[in-house]
Amino acid sequence: MNKRQLWYALGLVVVLVLALGAFPGVTAHAADPTPTPVITDDQVNAVAHTLYCPVCENTPLDVCGTQACAQWRELIRQQLQQGWTVEQIQQYFVDNYGARVLAAPPRKGFWWLAYVVPPLIILAGLYILYRSLKQWYHPRQATTEAAAPRADAAAPAEDGAQDEYLRRMEEELHRRS
Amino acid sequence: MLAYIGYGALWLAFVLSLYAIGAAVYGALNNRFEWVESARRAAVLTWPMLLLTAGSIIALLVTNQFQVEYVASVTSRAMPMYLKITALWGGQAGSLVFWSLLMTTFGSAVMLRSWERDREFLPWVIVVTMVTLAFFIGLNLFVENPFARLWATMDGQVIKAVFQPQGAMPFTPRDGNGLNPLLRHPGMIAHPPMLYAGFVAFVIPYAFAMAALITNRTDARWIRLTRRWSLAAWLFLSLGLILGMRWSYDVLGWGGYWGWDPVEVSALLPWLTGTAFLHSVMIQEKEGLLKHWNMVLIILTYALVIFGTFLTRSGVLSSVHAFAQSAIGPLFFAFIGITFALSLFLLMRRWQDLKSDLRIESLLSREALFTFNNMIFVGVTLVAFWGVIFPILSELVTGQKVTVGPPFYEKATGPLFGLLLLLMGIAPLSAWGYASAKRLGKLLLVPAAFAVVTVAALLVAGIRSLWALVGFGLVAFVGYIVAEEFVRGVRARMRRGESLPVAAYRLIVRNRRRYGGYIVHLGVILMALGIIGTHFFASETQATIPEGGKITLGRYAMTYDALQQFFAPDGRHVARAIVTVYKDGQPVAEVHPRRDFYLDSQQPMTIPGVRSTWLDDFYVILVDWQPISVEGATFKVYHQPLVGWIWIGGLVFIVGTLVAVWPEPDPEERTTARKKPARTRRGRPLPRSARA
């Protein structure tokens, strides 16, 4: 084989590769002699569990009983067979049916608020608590610390042996006996 | 005829409630008590009127009067009698009538009590309860009329109207649409009424709170008067939630009991603020503190009660456009806004008068821990509220709906619920007023050691999930403290010669509030056990198997023995699988998962077959079936460890609340009763003038 023939052969290979690349289905069959992987119901449900039925009210896709949802689960099975990742499948559903198919809002744009507000509520609560305690908290002076806690029939005192409620109960029982 | 009787009674109830509002306000402002008394009678009279209204609807439902639009939309001939009766609350119009019936029932019960000592509250309690009632009756009269009939117009259309439109002829369908299959369950008898009763009963403490604000009675009298109402409301709401969880587990066929659905969360919200309220009122009763806070909590609870009803009734959850199209949504929205603003205005007006010199001497005192508990409850409420309204906000702002599901709620509220569990253990050991860390630490040492030993044992048993171990540790810690409270009390009584059952019984009945509370805590712990078990250790699998085929899940297995198909007399086509459940290779049960297809509404229902023990549930769903058995049937099976403890805990929880709510004489009334008034020889109290 001379140099020119070598170039022709190389060019043919490139053209073939490019041609097969343009038809991924052909590539898959031609290049992958292994059979289509078997996808179990559990694998389908694991993905469907992360999605919500696009047409029902608040129903996860893995437990939705409608015919439409059965078809969507079948679609997930096919996508898994084709080697799609969970993220790709989720994105497919979001692209086709909107963000409501996800179990939680996507972390972008306005929807970030869903995640930002709860910690802000907690922080605001902590701040209010701090301000309130600063106003209300008057620690007992050391001289009075040893004093007995306020008598209270409906609450246990601090020391189990001196439980005020039990003491009163025993007194009552003693009077009766 | 029956429809017109009900319709007339509904109008009368509306007029009476409006009269009661007017007469009560006039009487209160002009010191004319006879007007207030007249208002009270009018308010009480709304009860028989609404009873007649609801009775008419039930009579229409059970006699298949399909010419009435409501009857045709929620019943069918094949439905059993009990479901026809419960269809009263199965649709929009009927459920609003039911709300009103409960409101007037509770309102009338309050009106009929002795008001001698609290006369100044009466007119304003009448106003608040009757305004709420008039609003709901108004919705029925002007928007969702349960007595509207079907009429065929000249151009062949079927329309609904109460009275015959010109040129239209009465139209009676041969059969009704039937109740939504999801609602065709014995749970329908108890779950919605309990939830509604909980919602409505919270109006009573709110009414007293508003009366206290208007009359400037800043003491804890309104709290003492409504303590049992608050507890009863909380009991109903708790029962409603627990029954709803069970219904979901039994009927919805997804192996779970709580899906953080917006409707579920909207019922949980007033329960959360109500729980915070029940704890914080103790501080006002004991120490005269947190008066503002209690007002805020009861105002929030009332607003959330109406908000919960609004969410489920306005259509806003399905779409903001549905909300805008329905007249009921904007009306609800306006009512919530106006009542909330008015309540806050009244609170602001009395802000100074409600001020108390709150002094917390120790951050570990009971009042400090109760304050933390309240902050967390309100924190959970706000976070959950945000989760419920966020999809609506998203649709308004971006035009796109989003789902806020379990991942959001579990992450946002899970740690807060854990903290609440911890506080539930520590707070009862802390003293009112002053508690030192040293003493409290001493009391907590043994329970903490017990928790550590429990966690260590679980580690040895092979449990590696960090959060599950934290959860079980908390359950052990709090469980020990609650159990110790009972053991100490019972032992003390037994030392005086009482037998164990007598000592236990007397311990509880002598202080129902305290021990009722502990029993409720015990219920929460048991429920927590079930929640941890199902959340961290549940497993599932699904497969299609032929007859005689087998599915294995952990130590369990099931075989598909046969499929039976038949028509049930109530209009269902039933496909029922016979499944044998094996544990460790041994047959332990036969279960019958099935799919019911409702012919009238053309909807399927999946009813699981469940083998339950105190340790776990094996839950089988018939996902699909093949009539010729070539490919067999598809089953989804769940293993739910410890799920039974949720129902056992729920039962204990309810028993505890019943113990706490059991009627006892008002301690203040008891004190008054000791000073017996002069009596005549026949024992009748002398008139006031004679006593003087």
Question: Can you walk me through this structure?
Answer:
- The complex is a heterodimer of chains A (177) and B (692).
- Chain A has 177 residues and is mostly helical.
- Among the domains of chain A are: 1-34; 41-101, Cytochrome C biogenesis protein (Helicase, Ruva Protein, domain 3, Orthogonal Bundle); 107-133.
- Helix content of chain A is 59%, strand content 0%.
- Chain A has helices at residues 3-22, 24-31, 41-48, 67-81, 86-97, 112-136, 142-145, 164-176.
- In chain A, helix 3 (41-48) packs across helix 4 (67-81).
- Chain A is elongated, with a radius of gyration of 35 Å.
- In chain B, strands 5, 6, 7, 8, 9 and 10 form a 6-stranded antiparallel β-sheet that branches. In chain B, strands 4-13-12-11 form a 4-stranded antiparallel β-sheet. Chain B has a 3-stranded antiparallel β-sheet with strand order 2-1-3, with no helix packed on it.
- In chain B, helix 10 packs antiparallel against helix 14, helix 11 packs antiparallel against helix 13 and helix 18 (500-510) crosses helix 19.
- Among the domains of chain B are: 185-362 and 397-411, Four Helix Bundle (Hemerythrin (Met), subunit A), CATH 1.20.120; 539-645, no CATH class.
- Residues 675-692 of chain B have low confidence and may be disordered.
- The radius of gyration of chain B is 28 Å and the shape is flat.
- Chain B starts with a helix and ends with a helix.
- With 692 residues, chain B is of the alpha+beta class.
- Classes of the chains: A mainly alpha (177), B alpha+beta (692).
- Chains A and B meet through helix 3, helix 6 and helix 8 of A and helix 14, helix 15, helix 16, helix 17 and strand 4 of B.
